[in-house]
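Re: that chain you flagged

S.,

Sorry for the slow reply, it's been a week of failed gels. I finally had a moment to sit down with the sequence you sent. For the record, here it is as I used it:
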Amino acid sequence: MQYFLIHGYGKALDIQEPDIPENGGFYIFDNEITENKAYPYIWAETVQRNLLTPYNLIAQIQLYYRERHKAEDTKEHQRLYQELSSQKPKIIIAHSSGARLLVKYLATYTLPKSVKQIIFVQADISKTELQVNPIPAQIQFTNFWCYWDPALITSMLLNRYIPIGLYPPEPKHSRFYPLYKLPNPHQNIWKDNKFKQIIAQTII
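Prediction finished late last night. Pasting the structure tokens below so you have them in one place:
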């Protein structure tokens, strides 16, 4: 498997989707998913929703904290371990709170030997948390960030840390990419074919 795709927060309340998408929201990888070259790891919490639920700020925040807890849950880490072991990917791409899930996973589990590269995109995790559970030194790591990401600005206010997807802890492994696709630039980066080309440039 080439790509193992870990989505971020709120797939159940995405205003552009009626339900959790099977591709995890990674639209630019639809061809690779169809051809079994990419595997979307779906870990989103489900929500009973009506027409207005995605616009309910309280519902959004409640889901955020439920998924934040799930990203730190050992049962989810065990399931992730099983899926990684089965798929044996070369590259892991983690978006938003999907980066939190992977970093917390690394506190207990190792990665398959097949993994050569990890790419974080708009990661919702602090510098300190990454230092506690660092990416293994033998794996190439790239952290894509953008300082005007509205979702991560909200995270900064809620959690009182600066996510590394909003501002990187150090430049060595980080690369700026501007978010511009509306109405949800944080998520719509996965509808940006130019970004897919940028990802291709980082692949070893």
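What I noticed first: The chain has a mean pLDDT of 90.

Talk soon,
D.
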